[in-house]
């Protein structure tokens, strides 16, 4: 799957997510190996604030091996937040590559992510990495996949990992409730996902901009 095969509005190499592209992302997740299990990452953007949260569970087959893993972190000078689903080692390799792209492109997140996605798709080493990433700065939220896609949600919501669809559905419903800020929506949505997905727990770590 390439950027050209997806249907959506493309701006500077960033594809805006619609229902068609969401279906393709879900298919990627459903076809992934067992290494994708054990996480839920959710990003919510509302009223000028963006929050990314991840649960702490790491599973090996049917066994929980860690309950308080940190899957969300800040990059650069702290003005960019990111979360990952997939292999931890692979994710940290991608974090390092993204930080180098950000240094090269002086904080231009969308351009740095597009360049990383190109490398991820074409590099003989990087294309073996199994992970998905959500990256956000004060202006934009992006989803990166190993297929070379850089996707921007139209509604400011992104969910990935084994419980990502549950958290995303909950967040969409809560976005219509008056008086809820981004962090509250994330916490409630992650709690709902933890109650449904056996690979997700309620030890939530979040970062906010």
Radius of gyration based on Cα positions: 16 Å
- Main structural class: alpha+beta
Q: Please summarize the sheet with the most strands.
A: 7 strands, mixed
- Fraction of residues in β-strands: 25-35%
Distance between the termini: 32 Å
In round numbers, the mean pLDDT is 80
- Using the coordinates above, name the CATH class: Alpha Beta
Q: Report strand order across the widest sheet.
A: 1-2-11-10-9-8-7
What is the number of beta strands? Answer: 13
How many structural domains can be distinguished in the coordinates?
1
Helix content: 25-40%
N-to-C SSE string, H for helix and E for strand: EEHEEEEEEHHEEEEHHE
CATH architecture: 4-Layer Sandwich
The name of the CATH topology is Glutamine Phosphoribosylpyrophosphate, subunit 1, domain 1
The low-pLDDT segments are 1-9, 30-36
CATH superfamily: Aminohydrolase, N-terminal nucleophile (Ntn) domain
Instruction: Give the overall form.
Output: globular
List the helices and strands and how they pair.
Blueprint: E1 10-11, E2 14-17, H1 19-30, E3 40-46, E4 49-54, E5 58-60, E6 63-66, E7 72-75, E8 80-86, H2 88-104, H3 109-122, E9 131-136, E10 141-144, E11 150-153, E12 157-161, H4 164-174, H5 182-196, E13 205-208
Parallel strand pairs: 2-11
Antiparallel strand pairs: 1-2, 3-4, 3-12, 4-13, 5-6, 7-8, 8-9, 9-10, 10-11
Helix pairs in contact: 2-3, 4-5
